Amino acid sequence: MHSVNADMAAARYSSDVLQMFYGPRPREEKTNLLEPLKPDFIALYDGFQISQNNFQEWLRVWRMDVSERNPNNKDLLTFARESKEKITDLVEQETQRLNSVKVSFGLEVKFSIERNGETQFMEHYFKDDEPHVFKRNDEDLIKQKFDEFIQKAKGEIEHWSKKGSGWVVERIQIAYVNVARYQPLCGGTYLPLPAKLAKKKAIINVKNG
Questions:
Q1: pTM, entire model
Q2: What is the rounded CA–CA span in Å between residue 176 and residue 171?
């Protein structure tokens, strides 16, 4: 069973990912805001499980909870080497299912610091700035983009250390792979302009072949 805090964290993460793929949700008065997405954990795949939401086939958030007993859960590069093949296989599975997908990677990392004789903890989410487009047989590209994500996260941690923050990696807690259906615009999708705009003759509506 997952704790309430873990479920809430996954729901917040899913909301953030939705905005990455489909744009920000319009801000309204607080009383009118949508409830956070509530994940329903199902379907194991090599350590990963789907956190499904209302968008299902449009966005699948896969998560892998990293065991506290995993000896590689404190070092990003070692964890990446251990996990790269299964993450690549997961994305390839999704490209077989959907042909073309947008994918972003994410990690939830727990940090600790010693202050005034006691240990304090902080959780931080590392995620891609933009999703990547993958098609079938893009294995090498998937690995390349995952490596770039890990290097970016590692660079952020090293930057904090150089600034003397004092926070150190306690452990990697969750790995995320976010997969969205991708349907690029194709030729032959000409749409006529509305009559009012067409009469103004100020807009060129190009027909594609």
A1: 0.69
A2: 15
Q: Which residues contact 69 (CB under 8 A, 6 or more apart)?
A: none
Q: How far apart are CA 179 and CA 134, in angstroms?
A: 10
pLDDT top residue among 5 and 130: 130
Residues 156-167: what's their mean pLDDT?
87
Beta bridge partners of 133: 102
Residue 30 near residue 2, CB atoms below 8 Å: no
For residue 9, give the nearest of 106, 152, 87 by alpha carbon: 106
Element (H, E) at 202: none
For residue 37, report the phi and psi dihedrals to the nearest 5 degrees. Answer: -65, 135
Q: Which of 137, 52, 126 is nearest to 88 (CA)?
A: 137
Angle at 8 between CA 69 and CA 84, to 5 degrees: 45
Cβ atoms of 172 and 107 closer than 8 Å:
yes
Dihedral sign from CA coordinates of 59, 65, 70, 71: positive
Supply the Cα-derived Rg of the chain in whole angstroms.
Answer: 21
Share of the chain above pLDDT 70, in %: 63
* Whether the predicted pLDDT of 130 surpasses 90: yes
**Alpha-carbon span 98 to 59, nearest angstrom:** 11
Strand partners, 49: 44, 63
